[in-house]
Automatic annotation (TrEMBL), chain A:
Residues 41-424 form the Aminotransferase class I/classII large domain. 1-aminocyclopropane-1-carboxylate synthase (ACS) enzymes catalyze the conversion of S-adenosyl-L-methionine (SAM) into 1-aminocyclopropane-1-carboxylate (ACC), a direct precursor of ethylene. It comes from Brassica campestris. Its EC number is 4.4.1.14. PANTHER family: 1-AMINOCYCLOPROPANE-1-CARBOXYLATE SYNTHASE 5, BIFUNCTIONAL ASPARTATE AMINOTRANSFERASE AND GLUTAMATE/ASPARTATE-PREPHENATE AMINOTRANSFERASE-RELATED. Keywords: Ethylene biosynthesis, Fruit ripening, Lyase, Pyridoxal phosphate, S-adenosyl-L-methionine. Belongs to the class-I pyridoxal-phosphate-dependent aminotransferase family. InterPro entries: Aminotransferase_I/II_large (IPR004839), Ethylene_sulfur-biosynth (IPR050478), NHTrfase_class1_PyrdxlP-BS (IPR004838), PyrdxlP-dep_Trfase (IPR015424), PyrdxlP-dep_Trfase_major (IPR015421), PyrdxlP-dep_Trfase_small (IPR015422). This is 1-aminocyclopropane-1-carboxylate synthase. The lineage of its organism: Eukaryota, Viridiplantae, Streptophyta, Embryophyta, Tracheophyta. It comes from the Eukaryota. GO terms for biological process: amino acid metabolic process; ethylene biosynthetic process; fruit ripening. Its cofactor is pyridoxal 5'-phosphate. Signal peptide: none annotated. It catalyses: S-adenosyl-L-methionine = 1-aminocyclopropane-1-carboxylate + S-methyl-5'-thioadenosine + H(+).
Automatic annotation (TrEMBL), chain B:
This is 1-aminocyclopropane-1-carboxylate synthase. One of its GO terms (molecular function) is 1-aminocyclopropane-1-carboxylate synthase activity. Coiled coil: none annotated. Keywords: Ethylene biosynthesis, Fruit ripening, Lyase, Pyridoxal phosphate, S-adenosyl-L-methionine. Pfam families: Aminotran_1_2. GO terms for biological process: amino acid metabolic process; ethylene biosynthetic process; fruit ripening. It is an enzyme of class 4 (lyase). The gene is BnaA06g15630D. The keyword Nuclease does not apply. Residues 41-424 form the Aminotransferase class I/classII large domain. It catalyses: S-adenosyl-L-methionine = 1-aminocyclopropane-1-carboxylate + S-methyl-5'-thioadenosine + H(+). Gene3D superfamilies: Aspartate Aminotransferase, domain 1, Type I PLP-dependent aspartate aminotransferase-like (Major domain). Its EC number is 4.4.1.14. 1-aminocyclopropane-1-carboxylate synthase (ACS) enzymes catalyze the conversion of S-adenosyl-L-methionine (SAM) into 1-aminocyclopropane-1-carboxylate (ACC), a direct precursor of ethylene.
Amino acid sequence: MKQLSTKVTGNGHGQDSSYFLGWEEYEKNPYDEIKNPNGMIQMGLAENQLCFDLIESWLARNPDAASLKRNGQSIFRELALFQDYHGMPEFKKAMAEFMEEIRGNRVTFDPKKIVLAAGSTSANETLMFCLAEPGDAFLLPTPYYPGFDRDLKWRTGAEIVPIHCSSSNGFQITEAALQQAYQQAHKLDLKVKGVLVTNPSNPLGTALTRRELNLLVDFITSKNIHLISDEIYSGTMFGFEQFISVMDVLKDKKLENTEVSKRVHVVYSLSKDLGLPGFRVGAIYSNDEMIVSAATKMSSFGLVSSQTQYLLSALLSDKKFTSQYLEENQKRLKSRQKRLVSGLESAGITCLRSNAGLFCWVDMRHLLDTNTFEAELDLWKKIVYNVKLNISPGSSCHCTEPGWFRVCFANMSEGTLDLALKRLKTFVESTDCGRMISRSSHERLKSLRKKTVSNWVFRVSWSDRVPDER
Amino acid sequence: MKQLSTKVTSNAHGQDSSYFLGWEEYEKNPYDEIKNPNGIIQMGLAENQLCFDLIETWLAKNPDAAGLKKDGQSIFKELALFQDYHGLPEFKKALAEFMEEIRGNRVTFDPRKIVLAAGSTSANETLMFCLAEPGDAFLLPTPYYPGFDRDLKWRTGAEIVPIHCSSSNGFQITESALQQAYQQAQKLDLNVKGILVTNPSNPLGTMLTRRELNLLVDFITSKNIHLISDEIYSGTVFGFEQFVSVMDVLKDKKLEDSEVSKRVHVVYSLSKDLGLPGFRVGAIYSNDEMVVSAATKMSSFGLVSSQTQYLLSALLSDKKFTGTYLNENKKRLKIRQRQLVSGLEAAGVTCLKSNAGLFCWVDMRHLLDTNTFEAELELWKKIVYEVKLNISPGSSCHCTEPGWFRVCFANMSEETLDLAMKRLKEYVESTDSNRLISKSSHERIKSLRKRTVSNWVFRVSWTDRVPDER
C-alpha cells in the first residue's frame, strides 16, 4: 500500500527544475567582499535590502515595539495569549492605511475585509482553496513567478493555464491572449475559475497599464470569474507613473459594491516593500464576505505571530515613518535600477523598461547560440559557472521566448552590483560572437532610443524564485 | 456556475456546532473581578496562564532576545531576511533539547528531523497532506479535540473514523476498539492510513499508559500504517508518573531505526507548555526523510516568524530557565488541578483522575434528566446561562456517552476558580432532584475511593475548543 501521499512522492512542489542548481551553486561558493571576492554573486533573490537603516533607526527610537511593551509596561501576557484568527485590530487598521497610502489614498481598504496570513505564499494558497476545486484552473500571464506552480497547485489540486505574453508588445496582456488561454483551458476540459496577475509584475518589473486592467475587469465580468491581483510589489513602484491598482479601476469604472467587485481580490505582503520576508506577513483583501469568513478560518493554518503583529502595527501606525519610508524606498530603488540598466547597456545588453520591482527583465537573446531553451540553459550555466552570477532563466517562469533572464538589483551593495556588471561585461566581450554582438547591440540600442514608437516598451525584469523566496 | 469552492460553502470547517454558543455568550458577558463580577467565567479555554511570571522575569533579564539584538548588536537585518524553511538552526536545536528534557532525556531528538510550523494546527494539517490522499482515513480515539475535524479533514479531504473509548475503563484504548474502528473504516470503503492520538489526551487530561502505547505500536506494525502522536501537552504532566512518549516505547522495544519507526511521527507546540499560543510555534518530528522533506517544503505555507524563532531559541537555550520552568509549571498545575477537583467534589461532582493537561474531564451524568445528548445540551445551556460558566460538552468531542464535560483550570486566577466552584455548588444544590443526587453522589464518591480496583480510573478532563484554541 502506498504509505505516503502523492503530494510527497510526486514533484508537485515544483522544486526539481534545473534552475535550483544556481541556488545550490551559490550556497557552495557565495560572494563575500572580503572573504570570498571571487565567489558567486546572488542576483536571483528578489529581496529589498535598500532601506533597512530606516527601520533600524525607527526601532532604536521606539524600543517598546520589539520589547513587547506598551508605554513602558510589559504586554507580554496579552501577546502570548493572542491567537484570534481575526488578527490584531490595530495591525489590520495600520495595514489597511498603509495599503491606502501606497495607492495615493485614492481608494479605501476596510480592515474588516483583510485576512492575515503567514506571507503571501499562504495568502495565495488560501485563496485558491476558497475559489477553486481540484481540477479547476486559473489563468496566469507568462512569464510568472515560478513559486506559483507550488503555491497555487500543489496541495489545492488547482491547475494553471498560461496567458501567453510576448516581447512584441513588451509582454503586455492582450484580449486575444486572454481568449486563447480561456479556450485552451476548455480544450483541456478545465473549468476556469479566474485570472491571477501580479501587479507590478514579477518577473517583468512593470506595472500593469490601465488598458490591461480594464481589459481584465471586462474579461472577468463577461466570463463571470474571479480576478486575483497580487500587489506584493505595489510599494516598489519607482517610475514617474503612479501605481494603479485594480481597486483604482473598480472605482473609476464605478464598480465598487457591485457583483463584479466581489470577485476581485487583492493579495499583499510586507516581504518586498518593507523587506521583511522573515516576519511572514501577508494578507488577502476581499469584498466577498463568504471568502473573508472562510479565509479567516483557514488562516488558522498560518497565523501571523502576535509578537510580529504588535511590532508592525506600531511601525505602520507611525505615519511620519511610513511616508518617509515609501518616498525614500522609491528613490533608492530608482537609482539602483538605473545603475543596473546602464551597467547592462555598457555590456551591450538591453532590458525591458521597468518602473517597479526589485529586478530587471534582461534580454540576452542575442547571446544565445540558437533560439531555443536548450541554448538559454547553456547560456545560463555559463553565467552561473563562468561569470559567477546567479541570475534566473526565463524558462523557469514559463516565458514562451528563450533568452530572457531576471536579474535582481536590490539585494546587494552598490559595489557588489558594479562588480557583477563588470564581470558580465568581461564575459560578453570575451566571447567571439559576443564581441560582435556587443557592438551591434550597442548600435542597436542607440538607434532604438531614437525611436518614439509609443507601444515599444523595453521592459526587463525577472527574479528567480528560490525555494523560499520570490 | 459555482463561484466559491465547497470548502467555503459547506460547513466542514466545523464551526457551526452549538457549543460555540457558549463562546459567544462569554464574549457578550465576560467575567471580570471588578467590572463584571456576575459575568460568565471562561472555563472552555485550554490556556496555561500559570507561569507567565517566569517568562516575564527571564525577558527582563535578557532584553536582547526580544529586542532583535545579539550581544547588544542589532541583528534586525539578519532576522528580517531569514525565511529559510529549514528553520533557524539554533531554534531547532533548542527545541529538540527542550523536547528531550521533557522526556527526562531518555530519548534523543535530531534537530534535522524537526519541521517547524505555525502552531500544531498547521503541523497536523501538513502531516495529513503528507500521509493521506483525499478519502483516506485516520483513526482517532474518542473523545478527541473538536478542532481535529477541521485541522485534519477540511482542506485535506481526509476522513476520521473514531476509536470508541468508554468510561467503563477510564476511556483507555483497547485492542477490540482499535480493531472495530479499523473494520468500520473498511465497511465505509475508506483506506486507513494511520492512527492519531493526543498524548497526554485532550480532553481527558490523562497520559496514555505504556500498555496502550505498546498496543498502538503493535497495531500499526501489523497493519503497516502510521501513528501520529500529538504530544502538545507533554510538558503539562503533573502526576507522580513520568510522561511516557511513543518515542520511549520505540526505544524500549528496540524499534529505533526500524521500518516501523519511520511511520511514527510526533507533533509538538509551545502553545500549552509555555502558554504561547499567540506566537504560533509548532513542530513535526519524523524519522521518515521523505516526510521531513515534503513537510519542510509545505511549511512555506506556515513558517514561524524569524522574530519569534530568535526570541524562543534564546529562551529555550537557557537550560537554567527550562529546568526551573518545567519544574514550577508542574507544581502549579498540580495545585490548580487539585483545587478544581476538590471544588467539584464539594458539589458532588467527580472527574476522571487526571495527571496532565490544563483541564479535567468532569462526570455530570448524574445531573442529566435522561441519558441522552439532548439532555447533555440542556444541562450545558443551564450551566452557561444560569451558572454562568462556559464549559465544554462532551458531545462536541465525539464522546459516545452523554454527560461528560471538559472544565479548564489553568486560564484563570485561584479566586476566579473558587468563585466558579461556588457557583457550581450552588447550582447543584439548588435543583430539587439534584439535592438528593448531590448527597448520593457524595456517598458514592466516598465509597468509590475505598475501592482498589486497579483498572477503575476516574479521569475527568475536557476542554472545549473554541475557534482559535484547543
